[in-house]
Structure formats: C-alpha cells, structure tokens
Amino acid sequence: VVFLSGLREKAVVSKSTTSCAPFPVFGPEDSQYLADSLGQPLIKGLTEVASKRPPDPIKYLANYLYTYEDDPSNQINGQPKVLEQTFTVGEDRQLTAPPPLPVEAMVREEGADHEEDGEEAQVRRTPEPLPTAFKPTQRDEFGQMILHFAMARTHGRNAVFQLLQEVDCNIALRDELYRTPRDVAVQVNITENVEAIDKYVVSLAAIGELDKLRELLVEGYDHILDARDENSTVTEVANERNQTAILALLDSINSFEDKRERLHRAIRLASDSQVQEMLRSNPGLALAKNQYSRCSLHIAVLNQHDSIVQHIAQKYPQTLVVGDNLMRTALHYAMGVERVETLSKILIQAGAT
Fold first, then answer.
1. I need a surface site. Which of 71, 126, 290, 336 has the fewest CB within 10 A?
2. Max Cα separation, the chain?
3. Number of compact structural domains in the chain
4. Average pLDDT over residues 203-223
5. Residues 238 and 270 placed together within one structural domain of the fold
6. What pTM value is reported for the model?
C-alpha cells in the first residue's frame, strides 16, 4: 500500500479518507513487520516488472520474490541482505535528521563528474544514516510524536518547557497534516504552549546549541526568528550571551530559506543548469526541507525530471535517506508516479534501498 500510493505534492490525507480506502490500513506493528520482511524485495521486484514489462506481471513478480533469496546479489556471506533502513512510521528520527555540520556544507558533493547510465551502470553503496544532535523519538502511523499530543492540552506552570528539555527531540518534525508541535498549539489556541516552545528555542540559542538550531532550519522549522523569552527575542538573547556563531546562523536564516525556495522552484521548472549551479554554490540546500517536509530529491521525483533526479541522487547521495513527514524517501515517491521505471532505476543505481 505504501509503495503504490499515489502522491501529490500538496495533498493532505485525512483519517476519514483513509478509512474509506479500498486497501487495508495496517497498524504500526504490522507496517514495521511488512517493511522489514518485504520492503526491499518488493521495491526491487516492482522495479524489475516495470523494466521488463512481462505479459503476465503477477506471475513474473511472484517468481521474482520466490527466487529472491537464491540470487547471489541479494546475499551477504550466503545470508539474505537485511535492509539498512526500513520504512516504518514509528522508527527513530535519527535516520533522517540533518547532520550537525555548517548549513552550507551539510551535504558532501560526490567528486565524480560522470553520470552513470544504461544497463551496465554500477549500483552504489547505500549512504549512511544521517546523524542528529537531538535524541531519537518514536512516532505513530500519523507522524505524531509525544509533543504533538502534549501541545493539544493545557499543563501546569513550566511543565511544557520541562518536557521539551527532557525529551530533547526535534520540534520541527511534522505530522501527516504537516503540523509541527507548535502548529498544533496554535491550532487549538493554547498560547502558553506556543510560548513554551518559543522559550525552548531561545534557550538553545542562549546556551550555544548551534547544531540543534541548524537541524531545525534544515528540517523546515519556520519559527526560529519568531522565538521570544518574555521580553527578549532570540537574537537579543544570543547577543546578550555573546553567542557569535548563533548570531551568524540567525542572520543567515532568511537568505537560506529564500535560496531553498528558489531551488525548489527551479526543480519544478526543470531548470537543470540553475539547479546544478545553486547546489554547487550551496550544497546544504540539497537536504533543506519545505513546509511539506520534502527535500530537493522528493520534489524532483514528484515532478518526474529524470536528469535532475539523477544529478541530485548521484552527487548528493545523503538525500536518498531523507524521509518526509511520514518517513517516505524519494524511492517511495518514485513508486507512486507515472515514470516509476526510469526514476526507480536511477535512485537504486545511486544507492537507494
């Protein structure tokens, strides 16, 4: 169901429409089991079917899955390969958070200038999971973590701020409706919870948590500069504490967000040269997410621009392991668009699993 679901860039799926779907909706445990046991074989099998176009695709896929473990290319030391990453909505966010590096150098550009193509192209090694400065957190099948639920309720004095410090998770993570915990608090009109989150952001700046603020920015959190602690803004607090690195980051936020939007617009317009130039000048933009939790590779796949997908996937391979608000990678997106055959082949050859 996950692999074949149609994707639309600005679609919002509600629980009510999910209940009416003609396919079964699996719970978190069932989804994790299916992803762990069938995720990689199904992706490879569907890619093979799309490539070969056999007269009986069901029988072809069945035979492929039946002989999957007998194929030497799917084994390591005689044992079936295990997915390095599996798509489960409740797994640790550690797999997809941006690394604690300078914003403009978060993504390493591959040195090879050649573009791999054709049947003989070599499949690259899957990129390592991206590190995170925050603690991992569990999320349910709707992308919600404990903070989403906590922000929808009133609490005692300083209770929310203490909770934020204790769980120490990425407050930029969005649920299936693309809401951060702060957005939930705004939606239910609980001002004290909004203020507590802003106070937490200010505290990160005050104690010099540069890596965490960078992650919030790259994850698409759009309320860093709005944060206040009583009568002081986040910039004023950083200035009072002489946090020069934090001040430099805060000063760069508007410019970074503008470049991210221009990059995503260039991808949608299929402007190859502009995309390549922007990423060459600012490689950190490759990982930057928009308000729908999609990075440059997600958007390139959704718009089915083969050359841009190939460029990003091969030169910025960390984007292959970036998940959206429901932990879906670019390869999951490829399974829901018309050009699934071409796009999935490009991604798998670049190292996607």
1. 71
2. 71
3. 2
4. 97
5. no
6. 0.69
